[in-house]
Amino acid sequence: MHTCPALFISAPSSNQGKTTVTAGLARYHTRLGRRVRVFKTGPDFLDPMILERASGAPVYSLHLWMVGERGCRALLAEAAREADLILIEGVMGLFDGTPSSADLATKFGVQVLAVIGAHGMAQTFGAVAFGLARYRPELPFYGVLANRVASPRHAQMLGEAIPDGIRYCGHLAQIDDLALPDRHLGLTQAAEIADLDARLDRAADAIGETALRDLPPLVEFRLEAAEPMPRLLEGMHIAYARDAAFSFIYPANLDLLRALGATLSPFSPLADEPVPEPADALYLPGGYPELHAARLAANAISGLSIRAHVEAAKPVVAECGGMLYLLDSLTDIDGTQHAMLGLMPGHAKMQKRLARLAMQRIESRHGTGTGHTFHYSTMTTDVPPALTATHATTGVQGEAIYRHGSITATYMHTYWPANAAAAAALFRGESL
């Protein structure tokens, strides 16, 4: 059993400022010399980049379905063993989804801070706070923070509207340089925000003017005995793409590959680097290839080395943007078509509206795998699906999983620790 101060940061909906507040909290306490571990609820790649920069430590996903209760418990207990503070950022609204942020907070007894965007709101702020705090009596509730507050008088009105028995933790002002820039898939990647550290420091300064400068209550996290991990990838060398075009990677996925015995080497197709040799398998994760399509198309060294890897019949695992990179072409949002690697027949086209967003499961001969899909492109291919995922809760048909030679490709981002045997089979090139 390990104890650590912990706080769950949620909100009534998306776009209330959860990431800014969580990052500000992480930076504030890190500047005081505390070891801060931050988690993100649900499938997300962009928020964790910001939160990692704020805390100085990798950010792992927690989700009762995708990661599993046992997996979440192990991650939290391991963090509590070394950290001075644990922060968990929620997803969407507090009660949204099945399971929800509220389910996760209740399961582990972590008190919830509700961040409420108060722009265009006065006394109704109190009603929203009351609803969040009292909707589920069993929910451990810490208090509320007003965000995007227009003036000191506005802040006073909000504080006066809070019902008795609910802690008002203060407010953050409506200041543009506290907010984090957006893009079609969410926040801009951390490395692309030139003044990110200055923004994080300003957010930390603002947190220091609120009641959140104090550590939250201690929470006990039970560490269960871990089952020995089979060394299913012992001796394998796996290369993986990692740069601004291919950055959607769960840290837990890479941890699993190492635990299974693999040695990992990153490389950058965007920098025209070759696949590190000798690579037994290759992982092309998702990201933003559409923003760098012209450069990727012109980078011959990376392309030739990936082509040689495929021609040698070595396994390739490609997810979402990684899959698009393997196709014949990719048409960007402006309608310009770019030649891709041509290693898997098909064409992809970007669009302004979301094509698919869902938690998904995949049933294979190795058991059940969990993950999600979230993309703004559509793809056509003559390759028949080897398997098809299903929606996590409705059972509706989801993403196709394609096998083309030694390539396994899909739009689905799979959380590999949910099924280590299935993940190992992918990189050994075995049938699904």
Comma- or semicolon-separated keywords:
432 residues, 26 strands, single chain, alpha/beta, 10-stranded mixed sheet, 8-stranded mixed sheet, 29% helix, 12 helices
How does this structure look, described?
Helix 1 (18-31) runs parallel beside helix 2 (46-55). This protein is 29% helix and 30% strand. The two termini are 38 Å apart. It has helices spanning 18-31, 46-55, 64-82, 101-108, 124-134, 152-161, 196-207, 251-259, 293-298, 300-311, 321-326, 420-428; strands spanning 2-10, 36-41, 60-62, 85-89, 112-117, 141-149, 168-173, 182-183, 186-187, 218-221, 237-241, 246-248, 263-267, 281-284, 286-287, 316-319, 329-331, 337-339, 347-350, 356-364, 367-375, 377-380, 385-391, 397-404, 407-410, 413-415. Strand 6, helix 6 and strand 7 form a beta-alpha-beta unit. The longest helix has 19 residues, at 64-82. Mean pLDDT is 94; it is low at 183-187. The protein has a ten-stranded mixed beta sheet, sandwiched between helices. Strands 1, 2, 3, 4, 5, 6, 7 and 10 form an eight-stranded mixed beta sheet that branches. Strands 18-17-19-22 form a four-stranded mixed beta sheet. The chain has 432 residues and is α/β, with parallel strands linked by helices.
